[in-house]
Amino acid sequence: xxxxxxNALSNFSVQYNYMAISVAIVLxxxxxxxxxxxxxxxxxxxxxxxxxxxxxxxxxxxDAMGRRQAMELTLFLxxxxxxxxxxxxxxxxxxxxxxMAAWRMLMGVGIGGIYPLSSALSFEEPPASVPPLKxxxxxxxxxxxxxxxxxxxxxxxxxxxxxxxxxECEH
Length: 171
Description:
The structure is a single chain. The chain is mainly α and 171 residues long. It has seven helices and no strands. It has helices at residues 2-19, 21-32, 37-65, 67-87, 93-124, 134-146, 148-162. Helix 1 packs parallel to helix 6 (134-146), helix 1 packs across helix 7 and helix 3 packs parallel to helix 5 (93-124). The longest helix is centred in the middle third of the chain and has 32 residues, at 93-124. The chain is globular, with a radius of gyration of 18 Å. The protein starts with a helix and ends in a 9-residue tail after the last helix.
């Protein structure tokens, strides 16, 4: 149902956003000549630091304000961070890399919140037409995780359709 689809799409986007930075770094290096090692490390790692923060904070907010409202907030933060890193980074090369890293940190906070909230929502809101059974709840939770790995593979679709050289994709 609706919860299973939302869970699956959320988990798909998590993995896509974790992996998409490799494409962005190649595009930045093609545009700027080279991306400094420090910038590549910061751009790659900040989303994971944000994710840890998001797992802790959004799980707490889910308890405090309600899981559905916290999920809406976490999805908004994910969107805002992705949008900001793509379109709202400007200035000198160093400033642009730092702005992108800040936006990716915010995206990571949102992404990190998806894990605890989507799992909790999957188990708390089974389909209304069927009495909640352990197997059905497990199926709802696994619905999101089953597409998780496909999100990382989706970046290869982008790379190949845009004909971006320099990014390795497994087939």
